[in-house]
Design brief:
- Strand 3 and strand 4 form a beta hairpin.
- The protein folds into three domains: 110 residues, 2-Layer Sandwich (Alpha-Beta Plaits); 103 residues, Roll (Chitinase A, domain 3); 172 residues, Trigger factor, C-terminal domain (Trigger factor, domain 2, Orthogonal Bundle).
- It is elongated and about 105 Å long.
- Helices cover 48% and strands 22% of the residues.
- Strands 6, 7, 8, 9, 10 and 11 form a six-stranded antiparallel β-sheet that branches. A four-stranded antiparallel β-sheet has the order 1-2-4-3. Strands 5-12 form a two-stranded parallel sheet.
- The chain contains 13 helices and twelve strands.
- The longest helix has 34 residues.
- The chain is α+β, with helices and mostly antiparallel strands.
């Protein structure tokens, strides 16, 4: 077998393979014998039909199977011999194939990038010197109390911290807001709207202009839509709202006491306080770990540059775009608004995808270098965790995973986590003031 490799582009090669005629004929004969064993022709018992009749009856199928076997087997041998780390499926072109002749074929393949791993042990990172204080615990308890707040209608002026029940109509440039921003129906008019009288609630500057008003009053509120306002057509414009106050409601939060503790399943306030402290400490540990891993990833990415496979980046870009569109749709952003941001979305997704692909290759190489492996038990544990998160049975989750060949995704996820844990364990951590 003769093999040659030609570089077409970074991470893309043309593999040319030639197989001698003797091997081609032997493969033809081998395939023909297999057909002869299985074939049942009229007048002959299964497997007893003459070879000549088999070749006449199944000539095309035999040729196709011989070609498939020859190209498949010799492609794999060529990849192994040239030590090529291929990605995805090859694009194979048959150049010459017939009995009594050498087989020639070419395969356009995408390969993993070639690079030297940077130093990844002892990466310098910073951890903020933070701890959970008594004040943090008390603030958390007050937030828990807010979950059981009651709203009591009062006959007084609005003040910060209240709720105003209002009707309003919004205008921009003297016309209803929907004339400027067709999708902003909620800003154009609302009835019985509960407005939180807190700084920056609703639209920045709106709530402050409502203080001092009583039920039955009407007010004109003017706001400046910020440069990063979610509705792009309203950015840096002025909005004018005619507001009618229907009710003033005062928030009545329960006391932070044993009764509140019981609402959260704790025996008493001290037990609730202890549980809140543990939760806050776990949250702090998680956020510190996440910050350190973010630094490690940035350090790793910045320490080496190499070419990336086009197909892998394109596929990951599509994945990122899908995630961005899905998240925005869940937030209520309309398809029209997403379409207007299409170029920006693809540009951001492309940059994100390049870093994801680059990191994936670095993680894979570190795992190989450090012999970090993933067991079946670890894959099963990850599957159980995800099934519980999505609230579906483990069997259904695994079946869905197998349908889309997603087991490899779980393998990559667990490998990624184990490599980052390895980097964190070997990092040079500096504690800095919070």
């Amino acid at each position: 077998m003769n093999i040659s490799v030609e570089n077409l582009a970074p991470c893309k090669k043309l593999l040319r393979v030639e197989v001698d005629a003797k091997t081609v004929d032997e493969t033809f004969d081998s395939v023909a014998k297999e057909f002869q064993k299985e074939a049942a022709l009229p007048g002959f018992r299964p497997g007893k039909a003459p070879r000549e009749l088999i070749l006449i009856k199944y000539g095309t199928e035999i040729k196709d199977e011989a070609k498939r076997k020859l190209i498949g087997e010799n492609y794999r041998k060529a990849i192994e011999e040239k030590k090529l780390h291929t990605l995805g499926q090859p694009d194979i072109e048959e150049i010459q194939f017939a009995r009594g002749q050498n087989l020639q074929f070419a395969a356009t393949i995408e390969t993993a990038p070639e690079f030297q791993l940077p130093e990844y042990r002892g990466l310098p990172v910073k951890r903020e010197d933070k701890s959970v204080t008594d004040g943090d615990v008390e603030r958390a308890l007050k937030l828990l109390a807010q979950q059981h707040v009651k709203f009591e209608t009062v006959a007084r002026e609005l003040k910060m911290g209240d709720i105003a029940v209002v009707n309003y109509a919004g205008a921009c440039d003297g016309k209803p807001i929907t004339d400027t921003a067709p999708t902003a129906k909620g800003l154009t008019e609302k009835k019985n709207f509960w407005l939180d009288i807190e700084p920056n609630a609703f639209i920045a500057g709106f709530a402050e202009q409502m203080t001092g008003a009583k039920a039955g009053e009407k007010r004109t509120v003017t706001v400046d839509f910020p440069a990063d306002f979610v509705t792009s057509e309203l950015r840096n414009k002025k909005g004018v709202f005619e507001v009618e106050i229907l009710e003033v409601k005062e928030k009545i939060a329960p006391l932070v006491d044993d009764e509140l503790a019981k609402k959260y399943g704790a025996e008493n306030l001290e037990k609730l306080r202890a549980g809140v402290r543990v939760d806050l400490e776990n949250e702090l540990k998680y956020s510190q770990g996440r910050a350190i891993r973010g630094q490690l990833v940035r350090q790793l990415l910045d320490r080496v540059n190499f070419d990336l496979p086009e197909t892998a980046v394109a596929q990951e870009t599509r994945n990122v775009v899908y995630d961005i569109v899905r998240e925005n749709s869940q937030r209520g952003v309309t398809r029209e608004m997403i379409e207007k941001q299409k170029e920006e979305i693809y540009s951001a997704a492309g940059r994100n995808a390049q870093e994801r692909v680059k990191l994936a290759f670095l993680v894979q190489r570190i795992a190989e270098q450090e012999k970090i492996s993933v067991s079946q038990e670890e894959i099963l544990k990850r599957a159980q965790s995800l099934a519980a998160m999505y609230q579906i049975s483990l069997d259904k989750f695994i079946k869905d995973l197998q349908k889309r060949n997603g087991v490899h995704e779980l393998f990559d996820q667990v490998t990624h986590e184990k490599v980052l844990q390895f980097l964190e364990n070997n990092a040079k951590v500096e504690t800095v003031p919070a």
